[in-house]
Amino acid sequence: MTEPVVAARAPSKVALEAGKDYWWCACGLSKAQPFCDGSHKGSSLAPMKYSVEKAGDYWLCDCKHSSKKPLCDGSHKTLA
To answer: What is the pLDDT of residue 1?
Structure first.
């Protein structure tokens, strides 16, 4: 697998803690979207480490096509 699977056609709103590391699913196969559960193993895709300086709500990409990964940039609106 070289291209990610579209997990959803809308982002996930998640509350993130400052200074904590999160692993964003880049393959789209995780059952714990938008976070990695190891489902990428055996593919050429790997999760992205993400942490924030300020705690709060963030919109994480679930279509896996954002140009601002792991944050949503609205790319899900243009998918066929």
So the answer is: 74
**Residue 34: both structure tokens together:** 């938008």
pTM recorded for the entire structure: 0.93
Q: Supply 7's token pair.
A: 């997990």
Long-range contacts of 8-11 (CB under 8 A, 24+ apart): 8/33, 8/62, 8/63, 8/76, 9/62, 9/63, 9/76, 9/79, 10/62, 10/63, 10/76, 11/59, 11/60, 11/61, 11/62, 11/63, 11/72, 11/76
Q: Could you say which residues of the chain have pLDDT below 70? A: none
